[in-house]
Backbone:
């Protein structure tokens, strides 16, 4: 069996896993019950809907540690995520895709690490880490996976940006215009609610991680108002594109 991969995202890719089997994984952080598995070309592929199968879990209440630990225990080596985000610069427009290269953590109440001083994380090669651990986050998103996402758009007419700074906020509310202005001053280009601690935890357990972001709106103060309805409507319009990209990843193209 070749390496295992996982896709983390929303309803747009559910039907790629029709006929797959449901897996329940027990972790030290709780049980994960909504992972689907299929096999393609001797490759195990897992799908994890981060908000639950009914999109019922808000971003600040997702059990990120259980989700990532479950994929770690399944020996996943690559995670391809998708995110709906807002743009906070005019050159990135609603409907565009972005493969971010950096993140800024503005969350407030999330548990950001497995390394609590006691927990031991055992890796696939038999090595482990425990105690006080400080990891390098110069590249929070795996360059190899970022290049993979970008290569899959080479024959597409869709607008794709090859880098971006994704600011992750606590949610579930949208940001204020003053907050958006502050994030712009920080150098942010996108704003979302779920890349932290997902990307951080994946790196801790040595899973390569990247995300494909669909811009669904401008940040507060850059347009008259932001509604969840418009976010969902634009995401649904682009679902076929997201599905096509994920299908290529599943098939190893």
Residues:
């Amino acid at each position: 069996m070749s390496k295992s991969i996982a896709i983390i995202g929303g309803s747009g890719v559910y039907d790629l896993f029709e006929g797959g089997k449901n897996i329940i994984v027990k972790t030290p952080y709780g049980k994960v019950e909504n992972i689907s598995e299929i096999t393609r070309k001797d490759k195990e592929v897992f799908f994890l809907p981060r908000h639950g199968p009914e999109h019922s879990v808000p971003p600040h209440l997702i059990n990120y540690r259980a989700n990532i630990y479950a994929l770690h225990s399944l020996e996943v080596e690559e995670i391809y995520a998708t995110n709906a985000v807002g743009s906070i610069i005019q050159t990135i427009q609603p409907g565009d895709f972005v493969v971010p290269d950096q993140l800024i953590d503005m969350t407030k109440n999330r548990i950001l690490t497995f390394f609590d001083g006691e927990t031991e994380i055992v890796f696939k090669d038999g090595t482990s880490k425990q105690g006080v651990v400080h990891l390098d986050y110069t590249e929070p998103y795996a360059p190899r996976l970022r290049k993979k996402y970008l290569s899959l758009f080479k024959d597409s007419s869709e607008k794709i940006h090859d880098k971006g700074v994704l600011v992750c906020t606590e949610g579930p509310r949208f940001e204020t215009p003053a907050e958006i202005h502050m994030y712009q001053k920080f150098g942010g280009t996108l704003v979302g609610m779920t890349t932290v601690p997902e990307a951080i935890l994946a790196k801790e357990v040595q899973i390569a991680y990247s995300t494909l972001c669909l811009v669904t709106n401008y940040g507060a103060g850059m347009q008259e108002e932001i509604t969840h309805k418009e976010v969902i409507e634009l995401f649904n319009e682009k679902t076929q594109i997201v599905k096509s990209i994920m299908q290529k990843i599943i098939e190893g193209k």
